[in-house]
Design goal:
- The protein is mainly α.
- Helix content is 71%, strand content 0%.
- It has one domain: Hypothetical protein af1432.
- The protein is built from ten helices and no strands.
């Protein structure tokens, strides 16, 4: 059985990650009009019981969407090991072609795992339907769905 202090430490890290993601994504909404944080929470929680993956999942868009978040805060939660490396790898720079970005994720099993969870949440039909009902053009959502499906298929082939 895992000692209680270890479980408590993991729980505290998850709470810190949620708090940081909530602050970083405050006021942001997704295409469906829902708080963006909900997406981050779904991604992270879907990766439990792997706490490292859940931490990276909760924080997966912080570097990209909230450049004012300090790296010190993130590294305090993630450490300086593979979790921090995976989070940095998940950040997509605008100059990097999307397919190249997806292929880069193969070098980190953790980043690979988190991106699959991210894409699965992005592909949830309820989110697409709600986005269209929220006024996002069907053509835009169809193009996103195709892009995400191709990326998910590519990542699943890399396993």
């Amino acid at each position: 059985m895992t000692p209680p202090n270890f479980v408590e430490a993991e729980t505290l890290l998850l709470i810190e990650a949620i708090h940081l993601a909530a602050r970083a994504h405050r006021g942001q909404v997704d295409k469906a009009g829902e708080p963006y944080l909900w997406h981050c929470l779904r991604v992270g929680m879907s990766l439990l019981p792997d706490v490292n993956a859940a931490l990276v999942g909760i924080l997966h868009d912080v570097l990209e969407d909230s450049p004012d978040t300090s790296e010190a805060e993130l590294s305090r939660i993630l450490g300086h090991g593979r979790s921090w490396a995976a989070l940095k790898l998940l950040r997509r720079f605008g100059w990097l072609h999307y397919d190249a970005y997806i292929n880069c994720l193969a070098v980190s099993p953790l980043a690979h795992k988190v991106k699959i969870a991210d894409l699965r949440d992005n592909l949830d039909l309820r989110r697409f339907t709600k986005a269209i009902m929220n006024g996002v053009p069907v053509e835009d959502m169809s193009a996103l769905r195709l892009r995400y499906t191709r990326a998910l298929n590519a990542l699943e082939k890399m396993k």
